[in-house]
Amino acid sequence: MTAALEVLDTGPLSTVQDLGRPGYAGIGVGTSGAADRAALRLANRLAGNDEGAAAVEVTFGGFAARALRDLTVVVTGAPCPVTVGGRGAATDTVLRVPGGALLRLGAPERGLRSYVAVRGGLDVEPVLGSRATDVLSGLGPEPLRRGTVLATGPPPAHWAPVGFAPVAAPAAEELVLTVVPGPRDDWFTARALATLFGAPYTVTADCDRVGIRLDGPRLDRARDDELPSEGMVAGALQVPPGGRPTLFLADHPVTGGYPVIAVVVAADVDKAAQARPGLRLRFTARGRRGP
Amino acid sequence: MRVLPCADSGLLVELDDLDAVRGLHAALRAAPPPGVTDLVPAARTLLLRLDPEVADSVEIERVVRGTRPVPGTEGSGELVRVPVVYDGADLAEVARLTGLTEHEVVAEHTRREWTVAFGGFAPGFGYLVGGSPRLEVPRRAESRTRVPAGAVGLAGTFSGIYPRSSPGGWQLIGRTGLEIWRPDRDPPALLRPGVRVRFQEQR
Asked: What CATH number is attached to the domain comprising A269?
């Protein structure tokens, strides 16, 4: 474990994330981990790390850090202007950051969350097997601050076979997410499902790692009784009494007491994690599997 | 049993009652099907969280439907003794609501074993059932913004212990010095589903 990066600026929120801590939901611990898991995995693969190594999740740019020795770094996720030692650099590719040089991420043109992987993986104290910061339960390391020094583990034995990955840019105006109705679609009127698939919903400013509150037409319930709390998954569209759904992301509560009308498929939850306020969402159905 | 989809991330199994949930949870915990990352029991449901890259949800549903619930899981879990000082801010109100004296509330709370049915509210929190039907009380009309760690409360038919300081709306009857939740301990939570709890009055 050797010191690698000194954080100079964090933007709105920068945290350490890996693939989270599955297996503890029974005692009330959420999975957490990178909001855009595919972007974290890609950053690690390009850096030659294990897919689940810890990296920095930068929310809406503004991250700056000084390399404390020569580093190999990869930036993925929301495409943002990157500079190394003041010179322009690219995302989704392997970068060399010489000791003493400044790595800087500007605000992304599209998307919300960028990932900074360092070869060797970030080495902070794991909690229940993960280095992820869970903003809901407070488990894991504190969010990064100016002055935080991050260390890395030993460099892996191998390099990635490629040094660059072509990646589709996040949606600029409208994002289409595939969902499967249920588990509680039968708690809603038939019209509610038609509305969910027919009308656009807008990402509000009330969005964080826990979930995204959406604005759009009401989804009306067919029954008014109270649902006993039940287990939740990332991607769930939970509908509180106001009728506007909340889309759960990585740090969602383990259980919830409002019915879930539909769930976004896992691959699209990563795309949802890149949705910024004002983005329009449309939902399209993938049918239930047969009986 | 109804098995409801949560896209490719989970299967929500809806059961008749808490006993059925506990029986199926015990059976699946002993032999989790491949691709199941988490089992989340609740009052009437058991959520199986799936790793979408490896789980075959059709096969897992088949396994779940063919699983024989473990009968009578009650009384088989580890026993945790919890010393409690019964001086909670809502003890008098609980006595009024139940028609008991404060002394009788304490006697009811300590008389029988409780069992952790499920968690979910916060890391380490366990919903305890089976203690005493005479202690059924509603949640407080107004939630407290801060309940200290170790506070012992009642709500509905449940009892519970706050693992960390947090907001909360349960009726508080006492406090324990026992460390309910410690992330660097194995296991981190004392009150895991299936664990039996015996409250003991500490003066």
From this structure: 2.40.100.10
